[in-house]
């Protein structure tokens, strides 16, 4: 089976991780635009004592790269504090996936964007702002 | 492997390969000179007879058929040939359907940069050329088009244009018409003698790639695209691709109306099973099955994205095509889906199937079953659904653009 | 059948056919989209690897190789591409060797009609470009050429040009150079990275017809000849002829220096036997065997006519070529034989042989024996002989033109 | 064996007729031009009593069509009176050969031209002019 995507991307595409929703999430981040072809919603369940992301779910509409990066980003965030998770970069996600086709690098932005937005949402709900962790 | 992308290209028939073989290994001389050794003359005989077979398929004289390297060359030759032959005339308008093939549209773009005027014809939601728009343009007394180019069968949405009708509108006002019949050749009867130029190709009818033809009405003046010899009635230089040409003719001969009955039956079967098993999809192109290429079925499936569908199917050894932006090199929505008025957010779910005589009903059953579960799975993980789309439509109506508009230009892909 | 016309075209190697086969029958998708199903990706992988093989043969980067439909397209693209890309510049001079291939010369004729200036370089009696003439033209300060086009190996007389030398003269004055290497590709080492464009072809190295390539130096601006897609680095639209391209690469891979040792040995053998057995002939092209295409031997035989020789041999199952006017479609003497200063009355006796690895010494022995008796027979019935030619030369010197000058134009063959 | 030429042309090309010279001919006709690629010399031996062409020979330099038309023309002339022979047309020669390729039709002119010239030469030698037989 020859594909332009790395084995890691294909594996996560075939068996995506953390797909789904969390009811009453601690934080929710929605990004994307159906015109562009990628929409991602990330749901966080954060332990307010420790700021640790105890659970994370994602809903993704999009291409192979979008599904794989959603999975990878959520896997990377899970178990981290929001401060740590906020620092995950698009490049880290792509590297951890064994690279992405050049033109698809933009897709990996989305999941990280959604994660950051969900963290901001969580911070806002808990009366803080992103500057405090940044 | 279940190959269902037969409007992209097809498997070459064994009988076609057998027909080509002597021209690979024995009769290898170029067929150019009449006065050469007997291999050259045998080559010429083979060339002449291939030309007759091809010509008879579209009801024209063999001497008006020029063999080319395929669709791209034929379309470039037709469009630029007319334009450059009329370079010094006052008229400089070129007209084409907005669902024309990229080889037509890109030729026009080049000509536009060089000072020619270009008008793309409106099409309706099924891809048919807007007759009123066409009539308005060809009847214009002060800006008569040099050429109108229209696809006979559309590769993406299957639309089968009524060429006789279009040609008669053009000819009423003495405007020549070029027909892009790459996808319809041998699949739907076409009387090319009613046209001024017609493009046909080999590799979509189980013939080899790298060979096609252009019918040019006797007397029509074209500037040559490829100079360099007396070949092809002095209209196309270069050593003839004789194995390819012989294979092309053999493929055309083998692609009888019977084949179309087979593929049409398969296509209709697929369509029916699709309707039973796949929720929320919309056919692209004509709903009337007789107004489609007989082997063509195309849809957009809601709330899912084409590349993801395509690769899931691929892993299961089923091969289809999509017009999804994410699957294209430019990451742009198909110009055809845009031209028929399909919003990009909808066209992401594009899936199209081209069946061939090599397919079976069992394969199609398996395909739809697989597709049904893939779609269900993707929808489960997608935030998009009917409610999402309703909200989205409202936002669009209110002119509210969501913040995360990741729309971007890929400059390195532009000219 | 003894085929000795291997500079016209060659038999396709069985290994090449085997290499093409999967792309005829299995991997049939166009290799265009990266994000498509695995057939498309496999096709792309095959395309990329073919490009690497071809590129390495002429020492250039794969990304600078564009696949085309063959010599004619490559040469038209190179010449017209440069001309049209510089349409708006003041310089409009195009230069080519007068023994260039017709696809080059006819492209120039077309451009000349459109207002470009054309100069054909003088060649010496062996077909080598006159260095002084070249230097004079490229060094001209007020009319710098847009391009100089030179053949590497000449198909008719075998002349092997010193491309490094020509390129360095051109580049000294910043004039780009196009090299027509159709007949020399794989036969003589060529460092195309020293050139700005180089044409190569498949069907002369036991590859399939209908496929070739053009090396284009990175950064050199060409106007596209065939628009219509992102294929071939956006420089050539259209579905790639993948079986052809794969076959081309396989043929290039198989055409090792060993093959050239074989053909050169056969050619030299032929040359020696020829000298022993055929009275009154004259070699055309270089006498120095190392300055000829390794498989090329060409002569004019006195007092006999080429078509008659060719058909006599043909009946005995030996196939060769001739540059005799009577054997050409236009009934014109070869422009190459004219350019090297051979009078038409002499060039009628032209015979040329291209050997391949499929030939044997025995075949060449038989060939020369047959030829010797054919020549003897034809001379016996010919009024021409040494005395006739002496008288003829005298008449020419005195300006006496014989009454029965049946020289005529074939208007229907002209533009 | 596939050729553009008719069987008749190929047969005469392979086995040309009446090739050679006649010493002290009654008439000689030389036409053609080595530049054009066809030269033909026709030799006549005519019975001066009957004006019958008793022998005829031809020397030909040229292509397949030139050789075949030389043979055919001499065959047609042999046994005819010069008056009859003078009337042989290029078209008759071509027709008798089962046709010639369009572009080669000109070649068939040559043999007939040479024949006519040889007849004129014979007439002149015998104190007559072509008007007397034409
Ligand atoms: C048109 C278009 N824009 C954008 C993207 C994805 O880029 P981003 O994630 O930056 O929106 C895609 C998907 O590949 C696309 O097709
Ligand atoms: C250049 C050229 N002129 C003329 C001829 C013969 O024509 P004609 O017999 O009229 O001279 C030939 C031979 O085919 C030819 O090659």
How would you describe what is shown here?
The complex is a heterotetramer, with two copies of chain A (134 residues) and two copies of chain B (415 residues). Helix content of chain A is 41%, strand content 20%. By secondary structure, chain A is α+β, with helices and mostly antiparallel strands. Chain A has a three-stranded antiparallel sheet with strand order 1-2-3. In chain A, helix 1 crosses helix 2 and helix 2 (64-77) packs across helix 5 (105-125). The longest helix of chain A is centred in the last third of the chain and has 21 residues, at 105-125. Chain A is elongated, with a radius of gyration of 14 Å. The model of chain A has no long low-confidence stretch (mean pLDDT 92). In chain B, strands 2-8-7-6-5-3-4 form a seven-stranded mixed sheet, sandwiched between helices. A three-stranded antiparallel sheet of chain B has the order 9-10-12. Chain B has a two-stranded parallel sheet with strand order 1-11. Helices cover 40% and strands 13% of the residues of chain B. The two termini of chain B are 37 Å apart. Chain B is of the alpha/beta class. In chain B, strand 3, helix 4 (102-113) and strand 4 form a beta-alpha-beta unit. Chain B is built from 14 helices and twelve strands. Chain B has two domains: 12-254, Type I PLP-dependent aspartate aminotransferase-like (Major domain) (Aspartate Aminotransferase, domain 2, 3-Layer(aba) Sandwich); 257-407, Aspartate Aminotransferase, domain 1. The chains are: A alpha+beta (134), B alpha/beta (415). Chains in contact: A-B, A-C, B-C, B-D, C-D. Chains B and C meet through helix 1, helix 3, helix 4, helix 8 and helix 10 of B and helix 1, helix 3, helix 4, helix 8 and helix 10 of C. The structure holds pyridoxal-5'-phosphate (2 copies). One pyridoxal-5'-phosphate sits between chains A (36-38, 63, 104, 106-107, 109-110) and B (325-326, 331, 406-407).
């Amino acid at each position: 089976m020859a594909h332009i995507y790395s084995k890691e991307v294909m594996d996560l595409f075939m068996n995506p991780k953390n797909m789904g929703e969390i009811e009453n999430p601690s934080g929710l981040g929605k990004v994307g635009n159906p015109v562009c072809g990628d929409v991602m919603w990330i749901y966080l369940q954060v332990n307010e004592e420790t700021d640790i992301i105890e659970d994370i779910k994602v809903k993704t509409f999009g291409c192979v790269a979008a599904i794989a990066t959603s999975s990878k980003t959520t896997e990377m965030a899970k178990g981290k504090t929001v401060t740590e998770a906020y620092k995950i970069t698009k490049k880290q996600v792509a590297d951890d996936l064994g690279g992405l086709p050049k033109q698809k690098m933009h897709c990996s932005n989305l999941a990280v964007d959604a994660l950051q937005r969900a963290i901001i949402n969580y911070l806002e709900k808990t009366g803080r702002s992103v500057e405090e962790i940044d | 492997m279940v190959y269902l992308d037969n409007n992209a290209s097809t498997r070459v028939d064994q009988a076609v390969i057998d027909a080509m073989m002597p021209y690979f290994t024995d009769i290898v001389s170029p067929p150019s000179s009449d006065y050469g050794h007997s291999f050259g003359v045998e080559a010429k005989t083979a060339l002449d007879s291939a030309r007759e077979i091809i010509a008879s398929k579209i009801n024209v004289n063999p001497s008006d058929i020029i063999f080319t390297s395929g669709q791209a060359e034929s379309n470039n030759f037709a469009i630029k040939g007319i334009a450059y032959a009329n370079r010094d005339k006052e008229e400089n308008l070129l007209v084409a359907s907005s669902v024309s093939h990229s080889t037509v549209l890109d030729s026009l773009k080049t000509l536009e940069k060089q000072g020619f005027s270009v008008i793309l014809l409106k099409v309706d939601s099924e891809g048919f050329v807007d007759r009123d728009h066409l009539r308005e343009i060809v009847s214009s007394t002060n800006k008569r088009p040099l050429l109108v180019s229209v696809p006979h069968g559309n590769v993406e949405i299957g639309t089968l244009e009524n060429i006789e009708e279009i040609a008669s509108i053009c000819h009423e006002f003495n405007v020549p018409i070029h027909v892009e019949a790459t996808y319809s050749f041998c699949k739907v009867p076409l009387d090319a003698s009613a046209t001024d130029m017609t493009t046909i190709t080999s590799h979509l009818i189980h013939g080899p790639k790298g060979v096609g033809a252009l019918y040019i009405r006797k007397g029509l003046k074209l500037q040559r695209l490829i100079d360099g010899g007396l070949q092809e009635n002095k209209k196309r230089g270069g050593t003839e691709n004789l194995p390819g040409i012989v294979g092309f003719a053999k493929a055309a001969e083998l692609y009888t109306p019977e084949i179309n009955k087979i593929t049409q039956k398969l296509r209709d079967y697929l369509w029916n099973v699709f309707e039973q098993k796949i929720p929320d999809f919309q056919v692209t192109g004509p709903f009337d099955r007789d107004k489609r290429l007989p082997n063509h079925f195309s849809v957009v499936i809601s709330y899912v994205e084409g590349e993801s569908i395509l690769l899931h199917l691929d892993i299961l050894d089923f091969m289809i095509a999509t017009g999804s932006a994410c699957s294209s090199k430019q990451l742009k929505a198909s110009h055809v889906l845009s031209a028929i008025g399909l919003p990009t957010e909808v066209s992401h779910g594009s899936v199209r199937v081209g069946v061939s005589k090599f397919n079976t009903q069992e394969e199609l059953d398996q395909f739809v079953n697989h597709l049904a579960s893939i779609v269900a799975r993707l929808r489960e993980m997608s935030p998009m659904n009917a409610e999402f789309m309703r909200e989205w439509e409202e936002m669009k109506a209110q002119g509210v653009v969501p913040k995360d508009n990741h729309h971007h230009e890929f400059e390195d892909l532009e000219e």
